[in-house]
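Human:
I keep going back and forth on a fold encoding question. Comparing notes only helps if you start from a blank page. Show me how you would write down a chain together with its backbone fold. Write it directly below this note and I will take it from there.

Assistant:
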Amino acid sequence: MTTPLTPDAQDPASGAATKLPTRLSGFTAFCRRVWALSRPYFSSEEKLKARILLVAIVLLNLASVYMLVQLNEWNRVFYDALQNKNQTVFWQQMGRFTYLAFALIIIGVYKFYLTQLLEVRWRAWMTADYLKRWLSGQAYYRLELARFASNPEVASDNPDQRISEDINLFTSSTISLSMGLLNSVVTLVSFVGILWALSGNFSFTLADRTYSIPGFMVWMALLYCAAGSLITHYIGRPQIRLNFEQQRYEANFRHHMVRVREYSESIAMDKGEAVERAQLDSRFSSVLSNYLLLIKKQKNLIWFTSFFGQAAIIFPFLVAAPRFFSGAIQLGELMQISSAFGRVQDALSWFVENYSNLAAWRATTDRLTSFEDNMNAVAQLKRAQAATHSIADGSRLNARDLGISLPSGQHLLQHETFSVQPGDSVLINGPSGSGKSSLFRSLAGIWPFASGAVELPADAMFIPQRPYFPDGPLRDALAYPQPASQYSDAQLELALTDALLPQLAGRLDEVSAWGQKLSGGEQQRLAIARVLLKKPKWILADEATSALDEIAEKSVYEKLLGHVASVHGALISIAHKPAVAAFHNQHWTLVKKPDGDAALYEIKKTA
């Protein structure tokens, strides 16, 4: 099983006593995670466009550094002209600055445009890829189940946030930070030679001996930035964990607000506003408290980086001032030294300036990696389950040696074998929590805690306890998941009328949130209308009429029985109402087994 990434496991900086080898291995592992997330896109069917864009962005970054080198040389000539009051050279350099600045503007505009274009394309591809994998093999369902299972290590919190926000943050941060690092490396390589040549030798006498340090300004820049980077990492490292937690708390808060919206009627009927407010306050309190900790850490880091940046402005003048006042260099060379030192210092300070962004990027990468690992783990579990729980098409429903367990591992049913023939109508009942719905899920092949072999006709259709209706036109909600264009208006209207919803027959194009707008009974009848529209031979209904009165229930069941009889199919129902028994010729009851038995229940069949 794939081991998921947790904040503690992912963050080598979470322990104060972390040793250098651990830090290096942690950095290497992090780079591997970034590469594992990035490689699929640049190896995909869009790899040509992606690589061309990436190369273009790299070339533009190199061009911008080249233009900065030209500007550095311009500084020397321009300020020497000012010092020497050379008007001819002054105006020549003003003209040169014009085209240098114009070239920088063009490079900057296209660098921005192509970078944004690559980010959008990459995000679109990753989003499509993650949505495909999340929705395939019932991964979305199994990930939710895993949160309550005995193996919660494969559960992912808030997959919607990971797909919608984390992918966006990952693509934008990966490109901006990697291009920023490239820019800094090239800038360092380009300017360190200039700074070395301009620095001259620094000589000093110690114990009657004279020592000379060549390239003194380069060594000072290295020392200055190395000290700044170490201090920055020490101050800023808690932000990695806090950024990870902040994204999770924000997603939890948003998720609960979505639930309040979805269950607004039930909450209003129960007058549960105070409870929901308390829950939202609690979740937002976590958001706020973690954010306050985060901004405190950011404040400490800003204190240092601001001081570091301001000191860097004056630092090269302080070091080079003795040579200037001694006449060894002119004003132009002093300004060129300052400019070159600033470029080298900026390049070496990339880590200092981007630490907060790196921390957020680290957290985003960890969340996406854990989501990736968990989706892979769920897929592996599904493949492993296929060896013990097989689903095949057949002409009838057959189950052999069927076992069903709870997510906790407790066995509900074991070694059950049964068969349903065309023409049968079977009622399944039993105590609440005995596994009736889990039995249907196992027959459908979506329950991950099942074993045995199941054969089920390919055109079987399930009616779940809580039917789902997409927001949009009524015709789409009725035909779901098939396109409504497959059915004529007459077919759609007839299905609604047969399901006792004639008042909706003229509203096929009305757009609404039908899962919230319709009452519980209307939702159940709309689900039955969907069955009557699609006309499957086998129907498995889980409490499909629990919200209907006896007259409506009788009418609906007569329609369903008449349909399956006409197509030589079968009807299997889960229901508690005694009146439903009259519509079935077989009764199966889940009966409690004696304490100490390996399974909690067994199926007892009566005519």
